[in-house]
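Reopening this ticket.

The earlier resolution said the output was attached, but the attachment link was broken on my side. Pasting everything inline this time so it's all in one place.
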Amino acid sequence: MSIRLRLTAWYSGILALTLLMFSAIIYTFVYYNTYQNTYDTWQSRIREQIRQSIVTDNQGVVTSGINIDNILKTIDSRLYVQIYYYNDGLLQQSDNMTFGSGAFKFKVPPLDAVKQDFSRIRSEGRPYLMYQQLLFPANGIKTPVLLQIAASTEEAENMLSDLRFILLLGSVSTLILAATLGMFMARKSMAPIGKVIEAANAVQTSSDLSVRIDYAGPQDEVGQLISTVNRMLARTESFYKDLEESYRAQRRFVSDASHELRTPLTTVRGNTDLLKKIWTLDSMPSNLSEEDLRQMSVEAIGDIADESERMSRLIGDMLSLARADAGQTMQKELLKLGPLVEDVVRRAQFLPHRAEWAPGDLSALDGIAVIGNKDYLQQMLFIFIENAFKYTEEGQVLLDVVVYRQQVGIRVKDTGMGMDKDEVPHIFERFYRADESRGKTPGTGLGLSIAKWIIDEHQGSVEVVTVKGEGTTFIIWLPALFPEIQAAAEAVDVEDLEDVQIETEDGR
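Inline output:
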């Protein structure tokens, strides 16, 4: 049985019980306050009629039984009187029992079966309240006479019958109407649950996690359930997309890594085969001198060394990214940014480069600190500087500093080949390199991915401005701690310093 039917059944059952109790209370109240009063009234009148028919003297003492003629003469027109003489079977009736075609008579019980009291009877299909009594008439008759005095209760009975019919009809009609409306309301209330089921089936059959339940009703339990399901679907979709992106990136990573490793391995294998042939006496060419063979061997060994070094760098970069993917956190401390950048500037001049190395004014870093890891920050700066050197055949590479609000920006600007704007969103992807430079400019295509991870770990951001053929500018923004903030946070742990730093950024 569905929830709608169960709700309707429970609701209808409770309503039926309530209506039954309510109808019983009304019927009982009407019975005792109307019908019973009618009986009590008629009983009083009948007793009064009998009392008035007893023959008494001037002092009220009974002298000679019941005066039957007095009863028939003084009877209330609304009362029916029947007198039966057991000795000769004579029957006397009041005028209202013998009039016209409506004449009738009451059933006479045997003498030994007479119940001398009030009782309810039906005669000719009509209800009466009857009083029976055995009397001894005043004319000296020795055999008892049966006196039957009755009052019609048809009006009261009809009223109670109508009341029963009205209560029954009203209760049944109300129950049917309530059950119908209850089913309608239950169906309407449970309709959003059907949408939840449809959405779940749609997700199950098509794996479409973008399905959402359209609901514009009140935020009751059903509304809260639908909101929760929609949020759950949104989070599941986000997780699924992240997982799918991770799988896609992993497949691309494996594919690119295989491609990057195949080239140096092919070179190493070719050079080792060459060396093997050179130094195998049986296959040594006769037209080559020993000096030529030595020169070829040196070149082959140099290629092997270069490719080995390239593979070492590639594997080191892949290891760094693998640690980042594993969620490895780096140890951080309060660092003076000025000395760190100055050390990078000093050591950057020894990197291979053709462009002019032109460091700018770094005085703006005086007193500024960051919360970070010295080695990783230096590695990140070297990645951007080395990248600028690679793609700048001539011109210059500039490094300077920009301070804006609560952030410090380290700007690395070159006058190299630049990039198209549509390439910018991809430059921080692993193994991505512009098609024009692929195969011409040495590198693994992992440097900027590592740099982006380091920036993210330091709660920073990177801004890229590039023009094709004119150069590229990278601005690395890091949250800065100025001297007044450092003084207030000297006795605080690094985690608390990060909280202070975040609050400062939010309040800028």
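Reporter confirms the inline version is readable. The chain has a mean pLDDT of 77. Residues 30 and 160 are 8 Å apart (CA to CA).
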